[in-house]
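Bench notes, afternoon.
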Amino acid sequence: MPLSGVLEWMDIQIPAHLKKEYIIRVQRGISVENSWQIVRRYSDFDLLNNSLQITGLSLPLPPKKLIGNMDREFIAERQKGLQNYLNVITTNHILSNCELVKKFLDPNNYSANYTEIALQQVSMFFRSEPKWEVVEPLKDIGWRIRKKYFLMKIKNQPKERLVLSWADLGPDKYLSDKDFQCLIKLLPSCLHPYIFRVTFATANESSALLIRMFNEKGTLKDLIYKAKPKDPFLRKYCNPKKIQGLELQQIKTYGRQILEVLKFLHDKGFPYGHLHASNVVLEGDTCRLLDLENSLLGLPSFYRSYFSQFRKINTLESVDVFCFGHLLYEMTYGRPPDSVPVDSFPPAPSMAVVAVLESTLSCEACKNGMPTVSRLLQMPLFSDVLLTTSEKPQFKIPTKLKEALRIAKECIEKRLIEEQKQIHQHRRLTRAQSHHGSEEERKKRKILARKKSKRSAVENSEEHSAKYSNSNNSAGSGASSPLTSPSSPTPPSTAGMSALPPPPPPPPPAAPLPPASAEAPTRLPPQAVNGVGRGALLSSIQNFQKGTLRKAETCDHSAPKIG
């Protein structure tokens, strides 16, 4: 299965040995498991940079140095420079998706010659369809690595030019092979004033091939960037010489037409998710949508690395609205937004334009979710646009295939939701680690540790004092307590036994003090101190009755005897 997504970051390590080779650790996405290492020399960087000159961008590749290039300080400085160079490339949305950069960073997965593979597939197809003939390959006019284009003609109509597009399957292909081929072959029957008609379409178990008329004016992106349709994608769009948006009336008309076709597809239950300026063809003042086959093939969206960051953009309908916001921004300002969400919008031809942009690209919109296409059509920017087309839309999808589309759409959305969930969890973990490791947080932890240490010292001191006091109290209580010292006279019995002849014998075992719980069950005894129940003692004193004492009989032999 082909890889998708943007190569997010690289980490250049110190050279492995004295051959001036640099180890680059590459990671795609958030999973550390999806990472690998490559070894590159400076000459490899230089070759890549020369190939990227087609973009017209000034990329910060460190200059060559012939003398002193083995010094440790120079190597460390060169390492920083190359890291910065890769950071610039991989944060550029177009460069990070181009074949040159992916082959440089991921040679194992992008080593094949896809133009040759496409030509082989096309040649096999032409064996059964001899009326078509390839004029020339249209090299690199698109951004996809595994989608190739060829200029075609019909043998009996040599002046008429057509474009053949070939693409293999993507990671979101969930249709069965039979349903997939049936739906691809159904595309030429789709008639809509704002959909660019497919002349011919066929598919096998691994790829699809479609033929359309060649449009001399090119795409909406070509109009915005003043570019030639046949030029390579990198040359046309990476560094436009003149940045200028469209006129307000063009923005209103094109926007209304695109929204109408999106609503048509949504109502039909046909997933799209691939709206951007290069997928819109211009014919006079009419926009026509391209590449309906992309969702059937399971190809990743041009803006997937953007909307996968926002958990509320989790359906293909909301993806289309989000992508429409990008397209509207590009039509208005002549360039894509620097980042999304957009905090503030530059001055626009109308506040109605800004209102639509805020509803699709602002922080609030990305956080709370996208409006529906029907809601956008009711906004002032588009509600007063009159459409003059008389062509009746027509696209009949059998019930069985509609059900297959519904299931495939749910699978595509489920994978998107899971990816968004993983990104959200990764962000939370990263923020927590960053916060925990910040200088301010370290200071807070030190202060809390000191406070805790002081509090523990105070508590230990108090506990030691309490233990010392309790030990003294225990010693005193043991000497004075009548219940714990049998040699001590019982205070209440001294008054009652004062009339008896001294010395009285000790009280018999049958006359202990009654327990407090039996004599006064409703009274709450005082808390025991040092293990002695003071409540029981007080209760015995209060309930003492002299009459309960037994009379003692004595035989006094102390009187002198006279013999």
